[in-house]
Design a protein that fits this description.
The complex is a heterodimer. Chain A is mainly α. Chain A contains 26 helices and three strands. Chain A is globular and about 100 Å long. By secondary structure, chain B is mainly alpha-helical. Chain B folds into two domains: 271 residues, no CATH class; 220 residues, no CATH class. In chain B, 71% of the residues lie in helices and 3% in strands. In chain B, strand 1 and strand 2 form a beta hairpin. The longest helix of chain B has 32 residues. The chains are: A mainly alpha, B mainly alpha.
Chain lengths: 659, 514
């Protein structure tokens, strides 16, 4: 299989890799920086201003600050839309626009500018981030209504949006890294938003630390770029990459992949994502479904000028992605916590995107296409899950749900749209995007293609299970005293918009729009004769999904759902419930040995290193005895001894001088 | 101002303060101390703005013969490195005085005026160290810093401080003694030319034979390694920061320890460039051990102040690493790191001190969390200072850490790969510390619910530091503009040039290659 992919990829490497060559921003594009500045200003006002303010201003900010947060996100969206339309008005050759804000740092031959790059790829991300971001801001106004720290929540959300925009607008890897760590910080703050809960605080730390392991890759990649190219600018690297040695290119591809694995929860750095569901649900929707976790996919697609030259790294991307897409899907089948089931699904869907990105030129546009549709339908479903929790006293256990379709009609119908989209029901957005990935994967390598196909079947299973457990059946499993009710308009309107996008997202593929639009960034794939006609692949995929849905119907829908998770289950179920032992492996391989190591080193430091040194100094007992007396003594005795010392020096020098 | 001895006056201001304040009533002494420290800051700020030329090399110079027979001069001057260290010192001292406003009163014996006096004395001596351009003068003030430092550690802080002070002093005296050998050795070499001189400019012009250079290097380096500190001569650090007041710790770790890395740049690279390159393999390995070992040991600490002390072991590892890989990015990164570490660690120590004061213990386990709910401002500042320590982009230490990493990687890929693990370890010690002190349900922990948040004075001490962290995180160029000429001078003095990128003819690579 490896050989197969390498051969194919290297033949594709012959295709033209577009060079990043932006023109200076003018006209409406000179407002590019403002898209970042708006949410950043919102964050500063809400966080710093809110902390500094006193009296009535403070109470005003606490009660109404969320409007500032929402308005800045919406403002950013409007600007993004204007820029997008202006970009469409330009010729294909002029769709890369650069903006130099200021020199970040410059030392010797290293010159790092605070530079932005607006091109078709970042344009689509801008729309996704600010569009879905705005909807989630609005939704949060309702969802967080009773939280006393709502102002701070919106401050963090705005901070996240600003950082995510920096990530996708950076024109060199260091600015990307700035955004990359910024979203990591926002994610940390928001996962741990309810930090009075131990579980939330622990999950936040876990997410940040695992992400930092990935950051090792990104940091070293940056260092290697500097050593090789003398710069980290996309423009210069895309131009020169072909001249670098194969070892360097392979290393760059793998290091960037390590970074991508951390941020996008890809195997083996996946363990943080399910825990991250400790954060408020809008956070799960925005950061841990629609935007931040897809940053790894962005990084790979953005670095196409490197990956196209390193078939080895591309192969590893494909392998990691295939493992993750199955891994996440399996987790999704076993979770009773509605948010964790969705998180497993997110991991799996990002696996699909990553798979497409690993397939090279033919796959890049579909990676982004699926990223967008997934952003719509997964945000939709997470917010739907939040709405369900809202009506069920914040219970997340699907075993306590049932028959909610009648009590929450809007939530149910919008969720259903997301459901049909993710399983790939013909016509819905996910159908188009996932189908394209499976098709491309099959054309590339039949094992990978079959895995992707199987993943689609499993997706059909776990999503149907989730739907059945939540919205169907009867109310016998409810906790006593719950009164499910529809959520307020502030929450349902964003759901309706996202549901509409989940249904209609496929229009992006009309006339191959998304493929052609991204071509200036990703290049044009040479035409291959697919091994199977597209219609056959589509029918296959639909059939496999149908099997998954039917299985769920037989195993879940037709049976009594116990209120408590049964314990006499197969090994496979137990493993899936335990996140396929991802945590246990981390615990055994890293955490426990790490803890022993630090404990051992700590005693070694106290008794080993210090012991030797103190022992040595005890050897010079006379000196230390003298000094102990000095310690209780007076300034003058010390000053005297210093004077003595100085005198000694002068004498010594004189002796040398005179000799 | 051109005719004024700017630097002598700068040193004289806190020195005068140190002499005057012990004779004032305690309350007045504090105000007077703050006044002297503020005046020194204002003086050098105005002096630097009006007279300092970033491309002017060593300047604001004053040279007077002192002991002519020995070629000893009272000679002062600053270049980019010296100026930044002087500014760092001048900024931190008033902040420390303000932060320690109530600290010495615990003694119950009007301790504050002695505290203020010693702090000002330490400031004066440190300023003299950073401005001395005569090796003999440097040695004298280098040793003289120990007097106020010793009394600050031994006189104020937690029980057991006497032992810590003694340990500190033994270490430092041992280092000083070893350095003394090299100072004398330098003099011998200089005297052999017939015209003995201790002036840096004269000594730099000497042609010292390689073997002698190596011996002299070892003497200087050991002293500076103890000062910095580096593994394995670091154990005074944690004991000292554990027992001393956090104000003292700021002065020790953020100012005094910089003398170590300052000395490496000024003396090891400046006077003994060949020996410095000869020693590179060993120094790089020791620096890497310091980075990883310091971070690992910090993770294992239960005492908050020991923990912060040990993070500096890791950070100084980075600084030394950057210095000894001999590239523009490395030396500039290290110099910038010295400034950023001073700002960030000062903030971390101060906020930790406020927390310890409120909780009555420095044991992280005993604090058992929950403080965020009642003291969100304290929690927020702790988090920002902590994130700065773990090199989060957007805060100033990131830029310097990245420069050092890039330089280390460029020197040898494995050096970069080992050093980079610190970004994970730092995240562990910072966030675990935050988790254990700040998060969790506060109501179940005794004493937390009545804890006060930071008051205006405390916020006033932290706000300038946090502002600087953010400001220099995004706009480090004002600092680098001062640093870069110094880097160019050092590179040409050592006689090394940057490796060009593997792919030469790079289009966007620009800027002044030395």
């Amino acid at each position: 299989m490896t050989l197969d992919v390498i051969l194919l990829a290297s033949s594709e490497a012959a295709a033209d890799i577009p060079v990043v060559h932006p023109t200076a921003a003018d006209g409406v594009f000179s407002w590019l920086w403002l898209i970042i500045a708006l949410p950043l200003a919102g964050a500063v006002v809400l966080l710093v201003g809110g902390a500094v303010a006193r009296g009535s201003l403070k109470s005003k900010m606490d009660t109404g600050g969320h409007w500032i947060g929402a308005a800045s996100a919406v403002g950013s969206f409007v600007l993004s839309l204007i820029l997008f339309l202006s970009l469409l008005g330009r010729g294909e050759e002029e769709r890369q626009i650069g903006q130099h804000l200021f020199t970040w740092f410059e030392v010797g031959g290293l010159n790092v500018g605070m530079d932005l790059l607006y091109d078709p790829l970042s344009a689509l991300f801008l729309l996704l981030i600010t569009g879905v971001g705005s909807l989630i801001h609005v939704y949060s106004i309702g969802y967080m209504e009773h939280d006393e720290r709502r102002r701070r929540f919106f401050g963090y959300l705005n901070l996240f949006v600003a950082a995510m925009l920096v990530l996708v607008l950076g024109a060199n890897y260091l600015v990307v890294f700035l955004g990359w760590e910024g979203v990591g910080l926002a994610s940390y703050l928001l996962i741990g938003f309810w930090q009075h809960k131990h579980s939330a605080a622990a999950a936040a730390k876990k997410a940040f630390v695992i992400n930092r392991v990935g950051d090792i890759g990104l940091s070293l990649a940056i260092a290697l770029m500097f050593t090789t190219f003398g710069t980290t600018d996309f423009a210069a690297i895309s131009e020169q990459a072909a001249g670098a040695s194969q070892v360097t290119l392979n290393a760059l591809g793998l290091l960037l992949l390590l970074g991508a694995c951390g941020k996008s929860a890809q195997f083996p750095l996946q363990a943080w994502l399910l825990d991250a569901m400790e954060g408020p649900t809008p956070v799960s929707a925005l950061i841990h479904a629609a935007t931040m976790v897809t940053a790894g996919v962005y990084l790979v697609v953005r670095s196409n000028f490197i990956y196209e030259l390193t078939p080895v790294a591309q192969t590893v991307v494909v392998i990691i992605a295939t493992i993750t897409l199955l891994w996440g899907a399996i987790l999704g089948c076993a979770k009773d916590d509605i948010k964790k089931a969705l998180a497993g699904s997110t991991m799996s869907q990002i696996g699909y995107m990553m798979l497409a990105a690993g397939l090279g030129v033919a796959g890049y546009p579909f990676a982004i296409f699926h990223l967008l549709t997934h952003g719509f339908f997964k945000a939709n479903m997470f917010l739907g899950a939040g709405s369900v929790m809202h009506g069920m006293n914040d219970d997340v256990d699907m075993r306590h749900y049932g028959n909610l379709r009648g009590y929450m009609p809007v939530t149910f119908l919008t969720f259903a749209m997301g459901y049909l989209a993710i399983i790939g029901f013909p016509g819905f957005s996910g159908f188009w995007s996932k189908d394209k990935i499976i098709e491309t994967a099959l054309a590339d390598n039949w094992i990978v293609g079959l895995c992707a196909l199987a993943g689609a079947g499993i997706t059909g299973f776990y999503m149907t299970r989730l739907m059945l457990m939540t919205f169907f059946g009867d109310d016998s499993r409810w906790e006593p005293g719950v009164h499910p009710h529809e959520s307020p308009r502030m929450m349902t309107v964003p759901l309706i918009v996202l549901a509409a996008l989940s249904v209609l997202g496929g229009v992006l593929l009309l006339g191959d729009f998304v493929v052609d639009f991204l071509a200036p960034v990703t290049g044009v794939a040479p035409a291959h004769e697919p091994p199977l006609p597209a219609i056959v692949v589509t029918l296959l995929a639909v059939a496999v999904v149908a099997v998954g849905v039917a299985a769920a119907w037989l195993l879940v829908g037709k049976r009594e759902i116990p209120r408590e998770a049964p314990t006499d289950v197969s090994f496979a179920t137990r493993a899936a419930r335990a996140d396929l032992y991802g945590d246990a492996i981390n615990e055994g391989l890293v955490v426990t040995p790490g803890r022993s190591l630090t404990a051992g080193l700590t005693s070694f430091d106290r008794f080993g290193v210090d012991g030797v040194i103190e022992g040595g100094s005890a050897g010079v007992g006379a000196v230390s005895g003298l000094l102990r007396r000095v310690q209780n003594g007076f300034v003058r005795s010390y000053a005297l001894s210093l004077l003595g010392g100085a005198l000694l020096v002068v004498l010594a020098l004189l002796a040398v001088n005179l000799s | 101002m051109n005719d004024l001895p700017v630097l002598s006056v700068l040193i004289a201001i806190p020195l005068l303060g140190a002499i005057v304040t012990p004779f004032l009533p305690a309350a007045t002494a504090r105000l007077a101390g703050l006044g002297f420290a503020g005046l020194a800051l204002a003086w050098i700020a105005v002096g630097a703005l009006s007279s300092y030329d970033v491309d002017g090399g060593m300047q604001l110079s004053e040279t007077h013969a002192w002991i002519e027979a020995l070629g000893v001069h009272y000679a002062l001057g600053v270049d980019g490195l010296g100026l930044l260290m002087v500014l760092l010192t001048a900024v931190l001292v008033p902040i420390v005085l303000l932060a320690s406003w109530h600290e010495p009163d615990d003694e119950g014996n009007s301790g504050s005026r002695t505290f203020v006096a010693w702090v000002l004395a330490l400031e004066a001596m440190s300023l003299a160290v950073f401005t001395a351009t005569d090796v003999f003068l440097f040695y004298v003030v280098f040793e003289a810093t120990l007097i106020p430092a010793y009394f600050l550690i031994g006189g104020f802080g937690r029980s057991g401080r006497g032992r810590a002070a003694t340990k500190f002093l033994i270490y430092q005296l041992a280092g000083g003694l070893i350095m003394l050998g090299s100072v004398i050795g330098l003099y011998v070499v200089s005297a052999n030319t017939g015209k003995p001189s201790f002036l840096l400019s004269d000594l730099a012009a000497l042609d010292i034979d390689p073997i002698t250079q190596r011996w002299l290097f070892i003497g200087f380096f050991v002293a500076f390694a103890i000062k910095a500190p580096m593994f394995p001569v670091h154990t005074w650090l944690a004991d000292t920061t554990e027992k001393a007041t956090t104000g003292t710790s700021v002065l020790l770790v953020c100012v005094l320890d910089k003398i170590g890395t300052f000395g490496m740049l000024r003396f090891c690279l400046g006077l003994l460039p060949d020996a410095s390159q000869w020693a590179t393999p060993v120094v790089v390995v020791l620096a890497l051990i310091s980075i990883v070992y310091g971070a690992l040991v910090a993770i294992g600490q239960d005492d908050l102040l020991r923990l912060i002390g040990l993070t500096s072991l890791s950070h100084f590892g980075f600084i030394v690493l950057g210095i000894f890989v001999f590239s523009s990015q490395g030396i500039a990164g290290s110099t910038l790191y010295m400034v950023n570490h001073g700002i960030g660690t000062a903030a971390l120590f101060l906020v930790a001190g406020y927390l310890v004061r409120r909780r009555g213990t420095a044991s992280i386990r005993a604090m058992s969390g929950g403080a965020e709910k009642v003291a969100p401002v304290l929690a927020g500042t702790l988090l920002i200072a902590g994130l700065a320590a773990c090199g989060l982009p957007g805060l100033s230490p990131f830029v310097s850490e990245m420069l050092v990493l890039i330089a280390a990687f460029n020197h040898a890929w494995w050096a970069g790969a080992i050093a980079v693990t610190a970004i994970v370890l730092a995240a562990v010690y910072v966030l675990w510390l935050y988790q254990r002190t700040m998060t969790g349900p506060g109501s179940v922990v005794a004493g937390v619910d009545v804890m006060r948040d930071l008051d205006a004075r405390e916020v006033g001490t932290l706000a300038p530091l946090l502002l600087a962290l953010v400001l220099f995180g995004f706009f480090p160029m004002p600092l680098l503009d001062v640093i870069n000429p110094f880097v160019t001078d050092t590179m040409s003095n050592v006689g090394v040039t940057d490796d060009p990128p593997t792919l030469t003819g790079s289009v966007s690579s620009q800027g002044g290659q030395p």
